[in-house]
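> tool_call: predict_assembly(chains=two)
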Amino acid sequence: MFHQMKKEYLEKVATIDSTIETLYDCLAGEPGDPRNWELYRFLYHPNSKMIRYEEDFTDGEFRPQYMSPYDFTSSIGKYMEKIKKTGFYEREIHKIKKVFGPIAHVWSTCESFGSKEDMENNNPYVRNVHSIQMAYYQNRWWIINLYWYRETEEFPIPNEFLGLE
Amino acid sequence: MEEKYLKSVESIDSIIDTNYTILGGEAGEVRDWDLYRHLFHPDGRLIRYEKSLTDGVVRPQFLSCEEYINTTGEWLNTGRKSAFYENEVHKEVHAFGNIAQVFSTYQSFNSKEEMDNNKPYTRGINSFQLLYDQDRWWILNLFWARETAELPIPEKFLGK
């Protein structure tokens, strides 16, 4: 059983593309849908960080917010699963990969939707750019740092990161 | 605050250039670690994809800036028998809003003369994650791997 699970998980981290695809897929679901957080955390190195440059929950100031994947799945993850009134779906629009042997970083633009219907109608409620540092060792890819920034009116995502030029 | 501190973090180019120049020096020369520390966010990390100092296995080694200064930094100050200089050959920058990532190819030299003659003893690639916050740039993560015989740096990352 464990062996089988392991094999299925290892296929998800066989390439940079499959790892990032799984990263987005794991979060998707309708309100109340349980997500596979075990698989989600499996994508990350034990020392990895998730860093969002957003308003701090305590004082509303912008500063980098550091979380471990475990912090993320047990707070934001739990919220998405149990409290959020809408669905959540993410889709990658564009990706730039820079790879040197066992190290890589990826600049991945994605859009988020409140329902499958919104996704079909191409109606995202927010877009983000993710900078993802990755390492390959022990025959698999690991996310080392996931660092992101949400699109704002002041900073619309440039066409080059939307695959439009 | 001293001018050099402000200058070092005013642009993506200046923070990365400063990262390289601070490490440079003759054998026994004590580097300006206060300035180095200034480049990094308090939660910033250096991640070397190299042999572990304990068991020799290659894997990502996570260090805070302080841990780096106390180990590699102290060795540059007092342990290393030759000079050490670094420069950048090429970089690829992606920036959006307040965040940026940079793939920067570096070369390391045992003397200024070797740097002038472009004779590096090693090369590698640094992946930087950078943030613009509080009117300055910060290094959040510096993640690197060294070139080896089995793993030459692709020409595209040498600016060729």
